[in-house]
From TrEMBL:
Residues 94-234 form the OmpA-like domain. This is Chemotaxis protein MotB. The keyword Protease does not apply. It comes from the Bacteria. It comes from Nitrincola tapanii. Keywords: Coiled coil, Membrane, Transmembrane, Transmembrane helix. Residues 40-84 form a coiled coil. The chain crosses the membrane at residues 24-44. InterPro entries: Bact_OuterMem_StrucFunc, OmpA-like, OmpA-like_sf. PANTHER family: EXPORTED PROTEIN, STATOR ELEMENT OF FLAGELLAR MOTOR COMPLEX. PROSITE patterns: OMPA_2. GO terms for cellular component: membrane.
Length: 252
């Protein structure tokens, strides 16, 4: 009687488990490769975005530095020109404010009108400001110029009080400039780069004294003053984008 032996089967044919495991491993490898590619692309996009933000930040810093330099030039040039005319004003430590002392404007206690004998000097200040602001393209770096009125700390009776008095002092100087400055020195027509009027007035009452402990008449007089505060303009996001596009095109 003949005996027949069945030929041994290959492991892969008899054990489908190994085939499915191999397929799974291949699929996992493909998924890993795809995930790695996606991650690399995302990292590249993040790096590009960070580089763009860095460029925008650097451009913003540059623009602000230029604006601050222009403001500093305007204030110190105005102070120097006024000094040459015998008009002594002071510049704040941070180069943002041109301060006009009361002895130049002559505000009496509780009064908001510039004395008649001081009006010519007040007009000279307006003329010098107009000249230095109009030079080159300086006005493009400015946002607002505030004519700020101040009082001493003695309470003023009535509803207006020190706040109203300080604002009225600023308004009186502005109206004098508006009415009597020559056409080539007019300040009321000046506009910033956004086509908004450049000058504004405000009043601080006794809240920003130059002398804290006011005792003598000289102390009170020192706090009755007008400050000209220059604020600089920040470029808009669209301007940053235009500058950034130019920078990128130049690098390509």
């Amino acid at each position: 009687m003949a005996l027949f032996r069945k030929a041994p089967a290959h492991v892969d044919e008899d054990n489908p488990y190994w085939m499915s495991f191999s397929d799974v491993m291949s699929a996992l490898l493909i998924i890993f490769i795809l995930a790695s590619v996606v991650l690399i692309v995302q990292l590249m996009e993040i790096e590009e975005e960070l580089q763009q933000k860095q460029l925008e930040f650097e451009q913003e810093i540059l623009e602000l530095q230029q604006a601050e330099a222009v403001r500093r030039t305007i204030i110190h040039e105005a102070a120097e020109l006024l000094q040459q005319r015998g008009i002594r004003v002071s510049v704040s430590e941070n180069d943002t404010v041109l301060s006009i002392p009361n002895e130049i404007l002559g505000f009496d206690t509780g009064a908001d009108q510039i004395g008649l004998q001081y009006r010519a000097t007040a007009l000279e200040i307006g003329e010098v400001l107009s000249e230095v602001i109009r030079k080159e393209n300086r006005i493009d770096y400015l946002d607002t110029i505030f004519v700020e009125g101040h009082t001493d700390n003695r309470p003023l009776p009535g509803r207006r009080g020190n706040w109203g008095l300080s604002a009225d002092r600023a308004v009186s100087l502005w109206l004098l400039w508006d009415e009597l400055l020559s056409p080539e020195h007019k300040l009321n027509e000046l506009k910033n780069k956004d086509q908004q009027l450049l000058f504004s007035v405000s009043g601080y009452g006794p809240t920003r004294p130059v002398i804290e402990n006011q005792v003598t008449d000289d102390d009170f007089r020192a706090n009755r003053r007008i400050d000209i505060r220059f604020t600089i303009r920040r470029p808009t996001s669209e301007e940053y984008k235009r500058v950034l596009d130019v920078h990128i095109e130049g690098a390509q």
